[in-house]
Amino acid sequence: MGEKMGRVFVVGSVNMDLVIGSERQPKIGETIRGSGFFTNAGGKGANQAVAARRSGADCVFCAAVGDDMFGKILREGLEGYKVDTRFVQAAANTPSGVAVINVVGGNNCIILGEGANGTLDEQSVAACLSEAEAGDILLVQLEIPAKTVLFALKTGKEKGMVTILNPAPAQGFDAAYLPYTDIITPNETESELLSGEKDPKAAAALLAEKVGCVIVTAGGAGCILSEGGQTKAYPCPKVKAVDTTAAGDTFCGAFAARLAKGETKERAIGYALSAASLAVTARGAQQSIPDEEAVARFMRENR
Question: In DSSP terms, which residues pair with 165 in a beta bridge?
Answer without folding.
Answer: 140, 184
